[in-house]
Amino acid sequence: MNFGRRTLLQFAGGSAAGALFTPIPWRLLWDSAVWTQNWSWIPKLPRGEVTEKFSTCTLCPAACPVKARCVGNQPVSLTGVAATAESNGALCPVGLAGHHLPYHPKRAVLPFRRRSVNGKVAVSPLSADEAAAAIAERLNALPAGQSTVILDERPGRVTSRIYQTLAAKLPRGEYVTSPQTEGGTLAKLESLTGTPAAMNMAGADLVVSFGTPLLDGWGTPGRVFAARDRFRLIQVEPLLSRTAAAADLWIPVYPGTEAALALGLLNLLTGAASGWTPEKVQSVSGVPAESVARIAAELKAAKAALVIADGDPGGGAFSPDEQSLFAALNLAVDSAVHPCGVPRVTRPIEALPDASIGVLLCDAASSGAGTPWRVIARKLAPAAMVVSLSPFLEGYGRHAELIVPAPAYLESLQEVPTAPDAPAAGFALAPPLIPARPGATEPAEFIARLAGEPVTLSVELKKHVEALHATGKGEVVRYAGGEVTPVKDFKTSDELWNALNQGACWRQGLPAGMYASKPSARLLQAAVQSAERRLAAGGQTDPARPLMLITTAWRATAGNAQVSPLLTKLYQESELREPGNSAAIHPDTSQKLNLKHGGQAILTTACGSCPVAIVVDAGVMPGVVSAVIGPTVDSIGAAPRNGGSTIGDICAPDGDAPWRVTSAQLRRA
Amino acid sequence: MKHSGKISFFAGFAVMLAVGWAGFPRLLYRGTPQPLSFSHKVHTGEKAGMKCEDCHVLRASGSFGGVPALESCAGCHAAPMTGTAPEKRLIDNYVTPNREIPWLIYSRQPDNVYFSHANHIRLAKLACKQCHGDHGDTDTLRPYQEDRVSGYSKDIWGSSISRISFGRGRRDGMRMDDCVSCHREHKVSDSCLACHK
Amino acid sequence: MSTTTAKNAKNARYGMVIDLDRCNGCGACMVACAVENNVPPAQAKATARTGITWMRVENVANGASFPEHRTAFIPIMCQQCGEETPCVSVCPQQAVEVDPKTGIVDQMPQRCLGCRYCMAACPYHARYFNWWDPEWPAGMEKALNPEVAPRMRGVVEKCNFCHGRYHAAKAKAAAAGRRDIDPADYQPACVEACPTRAIVFGDLDDRSSQAAQLAKSPDAFRLLPKLGTEPKIYYLTRRPWVREIASASSPAEVRRG
Amino acid sequence: MASQSTFDRHLIIRGLERCSTPRFLLWLLPWVLLLAFGLYGAGLCLVRGLNQTNMDNRFAFGLWIFLDLTVIALGAGAFFTGFLLYILKKKELKAVINSAVVIGLVCYSGAVAVLAVDVGQPLRAWFTFWHPNTHSMLAEVTFCITCYLTVLVIEYLPVILRNRKLRQIPSFLLFEHELHKLMYVFAGVGTFLSFFHQGSLGGLYGVLHGRPFAYRAGFALWPSTFFLFILSAAAVGPSFIALSTWVVSKISRKRLARPEVYDLLGKVSGRLLILYVLAKTVDTVIWINATSPDRGFPAAMFYSWKPFGTWLLFAEIALFGLLPALILLDGKRRRRMPWLISAAALASAGIALNRFVMTIQTLALPTLPFDRFLTYFPSWQETATFLAVVAFGVLVYSFSFRYAVLFPQEKELNVAQPSQPEPELVAVGD
């Protein structure tokens, strides 16, 4: 027997036949299929006991109570707390995925410095001490006429108070707040009358909203939606926003002429703005005369009406001149505003002289609004140092030379001040649910170090709670179960502190009295005059830029805020929300400009230009461009990126008022 | 010449049978010793007298605690009780530095399996032994055998590669088929998502 | 075959009623759904046609132009068809079935071979294919929901009424020695998250449930009613134009703007 | 005789003229390159996943399924010729049966290969056999195609075993002989399987009651498309055999089959095609007036989206159905090659159009009232994968043609002609 090729083949044939009678092929078939069900690059699930913990959302000023489902030290989902009136179980999409933020790809964990070298951006890590030293060096050599500014986007906190104290210790230190949108009308009312004002939305039967996204990122969603069934909503806005779509009545108005309608209403209600007949209002604002009369009649008939003109988080606040008018309207009707709340301390950054900031320290908290960088940039001196204390590289971090990251959401003990729509003053703690990463620095503590005045935030918070306890006023709502306990039932301040640390909020009781219901003639006169001045100043058109650009943002997705990468569900994996840098125009406008839905275009204003994606939307007023400040599809989850224009960068702020309307030009890219 | 063809064919056949039945199972699994030796027998025996559920707790939420965390061990073994070598290792390597013991779980199902001990213990009234056999009476922990391809514990497939076992009543293997056959036998739900997640 | 015996809980027929007049299109349901069901963020190249949104809020318009233009939002997920379930009969390897105990259309990604026949069969476009392997930014995998297994690329997935929550409710009942779950323990993530309380979930066979009552409302309707698929998702609206569009039995019936 | 440079002479069947080896290799080269390119594209899809394609959640099926359906329909010539030859005893068709078997094998194996890339988890595809859903048309298709592919391989074996070299092995010769005697059985089994899976492929879309554009009422389990697909595949199969034989004879510059064979193929095709056109028309009328409106979808709506207007329906039934059927039924025209081949080509294009309408148009059309009409264009990876199948088919056919007897009449038809051009001058040669 010789072993030739044929023998080998026969042997192989035998082996192949034999293999069929062994487990090898069958088991491998099974195993390979099972392998595809568990292959190693799919993450393994966390294991452990599932527990429920509570905190309070700090992503925007709304102060929503949060229930977290946790596995060990890791929240795996967040929801609202159904048992409290503050939440009614609601949380916005940004808050629902807030527990992802510590793992955001654009998060900074350690401090670093960003320098422009030969036109390229170089990034070098450094320690918090080195960062503090670098800032101190700059502070010591601060040129005359330049100031050190702490920018606080969430005033009303204990931290804000610390900042005010520290500002006094810094060389030519100033404490400023960013342009506020939410709570603007009530803040104005407060400053006009000297009485703290809060709204009792739950008792309102009519709400007239001027461009306020009442149902889409304003106030505390749970509270607004719970009240929504009881009030009639009239939305005055140049485009069919989500709020306008869900309102009982939508009144389209030419951009920038809201004050004209308010004057007309005030005229019909009080006779103060003589000359502002419904016909004149129609000619200025485009609102039909009969609509003006109808709204006035409804306001007159309402038992508890509210006029809210807080503006859009991306559209900017109304000017103080216009705001006095809206505040006055609240006084001219039977109002749902009552004398309650905490005096608001705001020092708008607009008050600073232009080009005066030498060092800008940006706090980590976000107002939720999309403040265009230009609003801040025009106040910066040449070669000013911008320090971002936010844990994210986007937002103000995009413009900062130094980044000293704060702990991310849920990583450290934080505080939550009164919500803008709260019926009374409130306070809550946001206990941490995730262990903080080493390297993060509490902004207030960092600035305190610069001022040579060490502060520990948790100690200050404890002091605040002790003070609350000492007053014996108000009540505490525990998130677990919604149980309400009067403050005076807490025997010690430690008991109160512990309750707040387990998830609870403190709130002031509602007042019995009413807000001053009749405005003085002097107040009305002043409001009318300033609004008229404002209207006269606006409205100049530039033939080169024939379109009116209005900007919108969805709260907590623009400005200094950051969203979970999971929000691609809304922006990229569906067309539910328009991503940042998209520009909506009416079909007529698109036809005139020869632009198609989904096409690329260049949006140009006096301040620059920005590439935009065109959205053709029959709900936008012809001649108007409604552009979105917010996360762009490629920036929701992508790697850090610096530069690139956004809509916010090309909005033109003017004088005391921001960027509500900018004349613009749109052409095909 | 005429027969040599058949001979080499059957030689190949026989060699393959041997490789497939004897060699392949050894090659398929990777054995890893447990981090610490542990005797269930000592703990459940007369001396300690513990029951399964003393350590393997069923929580009120219905979730199952599985292999107990270190604190259960440290409850008794914070200081040496018996002075044995494994106990010393337990205290030195885990209890003192407060480090969880990385046990390898024989009966661990993949992530896509939902198994409720609550359903099986409280409602079906199954005894631990019915699925876990005499694991609770063993004196040592055998090495953990992992399927190199699928990553499953050998206990999932069962001890016999042919899946023919001559055990005494208990089911050998914890594959889906094993679950399904018992479910069908007892006329309880066998829909996919009843046991998958 | 399956009968209610002592061994089995009573059968339910879970369904939803969605009030389109309450929905303001915020997207909370979509995000809550993705968090609950471990659906990953989009890959860079994903689009509205390749992304995975078990819950998807569609925007519809009345076709009129400014200022008569109006929009409404229609949340769409698996409609849990009760009759002639289009996806069940087509699956070649029994990866889809209707669970007689819950009425939920089960999709088993681990059984699925990714032929996508069920996607072609589904008139509601409620099924999603994993065009990519799932990927989470580093660290975010720690925040995965332990009750739901992540899927792999190449398989189909869809809404299953948050089956992980059903499991948890079952386990809780079992630990207390009960076979029937407490309805309060089982609410899908979208229902829980909806800030306007537009979605009501419950057993449609349980006359006392709010869902069963709302489903009988004269304002209630279902999508593509003439297909005979008997979905268990009901919609409510009192706006005639919304009803006209949403309850139309085909695109042909919708007035084109 | 073949030229000096024919190194593989010992492999070529005695009495058959084949081009020189270098020429043959040159002919193979572009196809090999195309195959390599296509395999690269398919490899990307397998390794990186189906994100490499332009399919999406709405267009869940694309180019691949469309081509699978087309290719399998065209491959129907294999079973139907076998059916005519072995069961109905049409002896003339012995002249093309081997070629038909190779074409069938190429079409089916190509389709199965593409399906393996098309599914997201090919390693789990065997679950269909282990956990079959007997209600699913796709399970039916999978079973039948797998079985029929096995039958085709068995039918292909004798063709291969008659190769000069392989015949030297006595056991192979014996095997071939025995196999040949059983061919009637395989032809019968193959016919049954083919009828079934051609039908199931039709059923695939006909059962989609959520897609009223595709849904058809039917008999018992099967929608009307089940029967229409069988009929159309049977009708076009012979046409495609005639077409392919003609193409091969043009490329090889040889006469491969007698005119009677072409004529018979054309006649069978024509008769079945007219039957199909009639049935399809009746079916369409029922669908327009009853099936579709009953489900809430007025049929006119389907044709309101450009470019898929009613012209498509007209083209499918009249231009690519009725017209070739009439040509093929007219004996005088049919016997003239240009008419026959044109009609065969039209019929083949018609079946492709029908499969296109069933797959692509069905998915492009909206179902929900607020849906949009969608478009889709395949990515290069999808196209390349398909081209790999074409290249694979050409290569298998080329090798089979060179080393086996695909056309038994070839020897006598070409020997009898002294004016046969020199093999060296033959441009392309298998």
Descriptive report:
- The termini of chain A are far apart.
- The model of chain A is unreliable at 637-643 (pLDDT under 50).
- Chain A folds into four domains: 50-103, ADC-like domains (N-terminal domain of TfIIb, Single Sheet), CATH 2.20.25.90; 108-180 and 346-405 and 440-455, Rossmann fold, CATH 3.40.50; 196-338, Dimethylsulfoxide Reductase, domain 2 (3-Layer(aba) Sandwich); 540-668, Barwin-like endoglucanases.
- With 669 residues, chain A is of the alpha/beta class.
- In chain A, β2 (65-71) and β3 (74-79) form a beta hairpin.
- Chain B is mainly alpha-helical.
- Chain B has a two-stranded antiparallel sheet with strand order 1-2.
- Chain B is globular and about 75 Å long.
- Chain B is built from ten helices and two strands.
- Chain B has a domain at 30-67 and 103-195.
- The N and C termini of chain B lie far apart (61 Å).
- Chain C is of the alpha+beta class and 257 residues long.
- Chain C contains seven helices and ten strands.
- Chain C has helices spanning 28-36, 86-90, 117-121, 163-175, 189-193, 210-215, 240-246, and strands at residues 14-19, 56-61, 71-76, 96-98, 105-107, 128-129, 156-157, 199-203, 220-221, 233-236.
- Chain C has a four-stranded mixed sheet. In chain C, strands 2-3 form a two-stranded antiparallel sheet.
- The termini of chain C are far apart.
- Chain D has a two-stranded antiparallel ribbon with strand order 1-2.
- In chain D, α2 (63-74) runs antiparallel to α14 (337-364), α3 (76-87) packs antiparallel against α4 (94-118) and α3 crosses α9 (224-252).
- Chain D has 16 helices and two strands.
- Chain D has one domain (9-411): Formate dehydrogenase/DMSO reductase domain (Formate dehydrogenase/DMSO reductase fold, Up-down Bundle).
- The interface between A and C is large, with 73 and 64 residues.
